[in-house]
């Protein structure tokens, strides 16, 4: 299976590359940006196109949100012309006001924010004009590297002694970019084998948690690992924010359909954070190891 991936520096694109590198049944072609022409589709001839999400669109510059929506629609038009399936990943923030119960796939977001409404309009166009599509709604992505790599940003701030602020009254399901990459490839392989289960799916980590609790847990696990390594670093602190005084805003995605249709189980975010912190510590060991001098013979 050959996949065309856009936005090479995105944390999800990097995760897809890592997943493809450990397999022999997937070939990736990764483009630097979101621009895609029919001619490029003819050149690559992919089995599917994958577009990573615009992370945190609620706080993104409105011009960036509009540019992303327009680029996705241009990609959709090219895919429609060449009958290439497209998978577009979107942020759970499209459900701006959340829901008291887990949000099912058939619930179309109806945000008040103008930028989010622009993204919803793009989703409507995809549903109406491209039969072979996947709209994959994700919880907040976290990874160690790449753009929008939330966990990497948290670690850099903590280690440098900077304080973090996070909402104590916004509940969501943090989602590992690596687990999304594994799931996407598995889903697209099943689609390529004739599953024909196109449409919208939710893909997020298990165990809803507040942003503040998630960030605090990352700090605690980081402190434990650094102490175990004998490193004395004064980490930055974590401060709670409160914006929803009446009741917490719950933005929890119900991911039952992706399990029922494709057999995809969600990975616990705590295990994924722990695994990534172990990788981060190993990278520190590599950075600290002196470079051996080479001798000419």
TrEMBL record:
Q: What Pfam families does the record point to?
A: RmlD_sub_bind (PF04321)
Gene Ontology MF annotations = dTDP-4-dehydrorhamnose reductase activity
Would the keyword Oxidoreductase be found if you checked this record's keyword annotation? yes
Range of residues in the leader sequence: none
The EC number of this protein is 1.1.1.133
* Coiled-coil residue windows: none
> What domain of life is recorded for the organism?
Bacteria
Q: Give the main EC class.
A: oxidoreductase
The UniProt entry, under InterPro entries, shows: NAD(P)-bd_dom_sf (IPR036291), RmlD-like-bd (IPR029903)
Q: Where is the RmlD-like substrate binding domain?
A: 63-278
Keywords carried by this UniProt record: Oxidoreductase
**Name of protein:** dTDP-4-dehydrorhamnose reductase
- Give the originating organism: Halomonas organivorans
């Amino acid at each position: 299976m050959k996949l065309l991936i856009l936005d090479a520096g995105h944390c999800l694109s990097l995760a897809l590359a890592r997943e493809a590198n450990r397999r022999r049944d997937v070939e990736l072609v990764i483009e630097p940006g979101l621009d895609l022409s029919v001619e490029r589709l003819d050149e690559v001839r992919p089995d599917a196109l994958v577009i990573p999400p615009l992370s945190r669109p609620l706080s993104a510059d409105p011009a960036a949100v509009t540019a992303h929506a327009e680029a996705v629609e241009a990609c959709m038009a090219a895919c429609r012309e060449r009958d290439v399936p497209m998978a577009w990943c979107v942020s759970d923030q499209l459900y701006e006001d959340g829901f008291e119960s887990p949000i099912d796939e058939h619930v179309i977001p109806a945000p008040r924010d103008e930028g989010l409404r622009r993204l919803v309009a793009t989703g409507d166009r995809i549903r109406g004009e491209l039969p072979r599509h996947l709209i994959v709604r994700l919880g907040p992505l976290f990874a160690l590297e790449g753009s929008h790599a939330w966990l990497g940003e948290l670690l850099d701030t903590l280690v440098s002694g900077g304080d973090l602020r996070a909402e104590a009254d916004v509940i969501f399901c943090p989602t590992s970019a690596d687990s999304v990459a594994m799931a996407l490839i598995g889903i697209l392989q099943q689609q390529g084998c004739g599953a024909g289960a196109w449409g919208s799916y939710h893909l997020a980590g298990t165990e809803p948690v507040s942003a503040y609790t998630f960030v605090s847990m990352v700090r605690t696990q980081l402190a434990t690992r650094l102490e175990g390594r004998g490193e004395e670093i004064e980490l930055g602190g974590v401060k709670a924010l409160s914006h929803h005084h009446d009741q917490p805003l719950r933005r929890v995605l119900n991911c039952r359909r992706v399990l029922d249709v494709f057999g995809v189980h969600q990975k616990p975010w705590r295990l994924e954070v722990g695994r990534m912190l172990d990788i981060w510590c190993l990278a520190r060991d590599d950075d600290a190891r002196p470079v051996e001098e080479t001798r000419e013979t």
